[in-house]
Write a structure and sequence with these properties.
The complex is a heterodimer.
Chain A: H1 11-18, H2 33-40, H3 45-68, H4 75-98, H5 105-118, H6 123-135, H7 154-160, H8 164-180, H9 195-219, H10 223-227, H11 231-234, H12 237-247, H13 257-260, H14 268-274, H15 280-285, H16 294-301, H17 312-328, H18 347-350
Chain B: E1 3-8, E2 16-22, E3 25-31, E4 37-41, E5 55-57, E6 60-62, E7 69-71, E8 76-79, E9 88-89, E10 91-94, E11 97-101
Antiparallel strand pairs in B: 1-11, 2-3, 3-4, 4-9, 5-6, 6-7, 7-8, 10-11
The chains are: A mainly alpha, B mainly beta.
Amino acid sequence: MSKRDYSLFGPDAKRAVESGLTAAEWYHTEVPRKVMKDLMARSDAPAIRDTIILYGSMIVLAGIGIALWPTLWSAPFWLAYGVLYGSASDARWHECGHGTAFKTPWMNDWVYQIASFMIMRNSATWRWSHARHHSETYLVGRDPEIAVMRPPEVAKLVLNFFGILDVIAFFPRILKNAISGPTPEERTYVPQSEWGKVQRVAIVHVSIYAATLALAVWMQSILPLMVIGLPRMYGAWHHVMTGLLQHGGLADNVVDHRLNSRTVYMNPVSRFIYWNMNYHVEHHMFPMVPYHALPRLHEVIKADLPPPNRSIAEAFREMWPAIKRQVMNEDYYVRRDLPPTAKPYREDFHQYVPGMMPTAAAE
Amino acid sequence: MPWIDACSTTDIDEEDLIRWDHAGQTFAIYHSPDGDFFATAGLCTHENVHLCDGLVMGNLIECPKHNGQFDYRTGEAMRAPVCVNLKTYPVKVDGDRVFVEVA
């Protein structure tokens, strides 16, 4: 059984480069150029509509929460506000970071900055880590955004449903960024030309949190923190729930997104919060397709993909036992059968990839 | 520098591009919305992804992998994560043929 080292400076990182894994070409389903151009076409309308709904709902819910504060009647409004703040912001950060949500660049940039603040990520750092996540998805030692490292630490996964570990990690890091720019690890994927921006963004974030905290002390109430900061914890559960499903329990160190990513059919509310990232195989295979076109892309290429999970619950029933098995055997992963219409997985390439178990042992 | 016959003007839709390989190098040839033709290096300067699968929007080409953007007329890097400009090549149209001056 192999032992994974997720450090970006570790032996697995070195091995991934030396074995040619990082330079390998990823599998793509063939899509006619005209169809793909149509799918990639940008539009402002869907994202403007969704952004008005999102921010409008947040203002109304927070307003009612403040009006009913500190009675228990305010609780449901805070819980709903929290999910929009602490989970929908993750999807906005993601899609606007790709620059595909809106057609107009400044709209992408503004929503990206606001969402980065709410989800507690340095907007100038995370853009680059996410680029690496797309280049080298779940390559051990190379991808800085692996949510479930093996062997999984289940207690940590559970704690993060309340954002606890993310928030604990965020504040020392943003303070370091504000004082001295990117950390040594961040400097492995953030170009030097951007280091000043990392520091400037961090100063803005730290200033807003300091002002909010000062207001809370002056008011002798946590109410300001219920609006800014705490919803990243009490509203995180939805983005953690959907985020774990993206790659959890699936293969690592492969160059085929059908093996390491998961598409899950979801209810319309979760799809609004998650901005259609439930079509995750499709998103990784064609990241230039905007969120609003992913359902159409899914219809175009689904014959070449493993069948999607039918619901969040069904996906968890597949993923959670796999994560538990990985606690004892970190080489275990779920391998889904492809439909007869699909091109086969590239066994010849994946068999010798470090960390990948032999095909016969997988399920 | 030699002018190389690369393709026909009808091979590329307006506001689109094609890949063109020549002498061990890969290039991208663009047909702008104004009807003009341009040529650049074929790989993104960020991570060597072929630009031919990307999206042309006006005078910009967007890389299909990380959504970095270049102005294909000048090669200027316009949107992160691309930071390094794209090499451009002179293009001329003679009749219905597109010629690229390859360095």
